[in-house]
């Protein structure tokens, strides 16, 4: 009788242990976080990498003490991946966990499977992961303190092409349509960029090409939910129109293919979300907003330069940055300063106008500094030179404004 009782106790004890180790996963499941996209959980692995490789050193492509940004700080990845994400990778700490997510994102790996020891929702919360032009979802289950998790990225068209322009080894991860887009980008790059060009000349050529040949999609911008096409590099190159994200990512892609450091910046302009670029020229960084330099309504083959290489102080007059990745203090390569188009009195305006007219131009671009332009100045400037009328852009009440005078005979 005692033996029977002992056998029953052992069976109940084993059942209890099994319940604690395996049954709790049904009672206390791990809740997916971002987007709540539920995929089929991974099962007990047959082949597992013993431990995620120690993370490589952080990229030096950033300013000290500035947080990493997916667009602003592309990592310097090794030729071969640090981790093989075709297998399940064992992760023992949050630092390695977030490194694995970062590496998968930057290598355009859509899905990774991780075995996480001592898992908890706080330390491994993917809401803490950097936001960007992609979405991230998770699903999985726990067995005791160990979680088997699947993390899935969905990358935007612009993000994938942008990364391939930074690292050409990633072209193999692109779709056929995206590879065709890459071919178009290479063709444009080869058309614009010539041997011996300075970084400034490359930047100017790319800026002018986009502004002159593409137009802002006002219809798409006015929709409550802007379509993915309107923000896509592929759609932008094919249809020759798009919104600010398409402009900024296309500009970045062409800059990167031309050897220029260029990053996408997001923020607010005129009360709405906006995207523009920061570009590196001769060791200094500048803001450039290609979208805002494109006239609306569109004027084919016409450019403005009001937002060509501005400092932080200058851009802050109209733009509010969400995050500040690089310090932009130099004005050396500001379009107006670099080309000596700064006007601070009538004498300099007269000299600039005469020089441009002698070169055969009937349009004069300039920026006033501490000088309020008047119609009397313009009439005096053009008197007796055979012009019948003129048009002028810019705020004539502002002593520090960009202007363009176009003359008609």
CATH topology of the largest domain: C8orf32 fold
Tally the structural domains. 3
Number of strands: 16
Portion of residues within helices: 25-40%
Radius of gyration: 29 Å
What percent strand? 15-25%
Structural class per helix/strand content? Answer: alpha/beta
Q: What is the molecular shape? A: elongated
Mean pLDDT: 83
Strand-and-helix sequence, N→C? HEEHEEEHHHEHHEHEEEEHEHEHEHEE
**Total number of helices:** 12
Distance between the termini: 119 Å
**From the 3D coordinates, which CATH architecture of the largest domain would you assign?**
Roll
Describe the largest sheet.
Answer: 5 strands, mixed
Uncertain runs are: 17-47, 53-81
Given this structure, which CATH class of the largest domain is correct?
A: Alpha Beta
Largest beta sheet: strand ordering: 1-2-3-5-4
Describe the structure.
By secondary structure, the chain is α/β, with parallel strands linked by helices. The chain folds into three domains: 141 residues, no CATH class; 173 residues, C8orf32 fold; 69 residues, Ribosomal Protein S8, Chain: A, domain 1 (2-Layer Sandwich). 33% of the residues lie in helices and 21% in strands. The protein contains twelve helices and 16 strands. It has a five-stranded mixed β-sheet with strand order 1-2-3-5-4. The chain has a five-stranded antiparallel β-sheet with strand order 11-10-9-8-12. Helix 11 links the parallel strand 13 and strand 14. Helix 5 runs antiparallel to helix 8 and helix 7 crosses helix 8. About 15% of the residues have low confidence.
